[in-house]
Amino acid sequence: MTKKWWIIGILVLTVILAGFLWFSLTDSDKQDAPSPPRTGEPSQDDASGSDPGDRNAEGKDDISENIRESFSDALDSARSLFVQQDLHITALGDSLTQGVGDTTDNGGYVGILEESINQNSDTAAETVQVDNFGKRGNRTDHLLERLDNEDLQGSIREADLILITIGANDVIKVVKDNVTSSLDYEQFVEAQANYEQNLRSILEKIRELNPEASIYLLGVYNPFDKYFKDIPELNQIISDWNRISRQVLTEFDNTGFIPIRDIFEGADEDILWEDNFHPNEAGYKRMAERVLEYIREEIEE
Question: Which CDD domains match (predicted)?
Answer without folding.
Answer: SGNH_hydrolase_YpmR_like (cd04506)
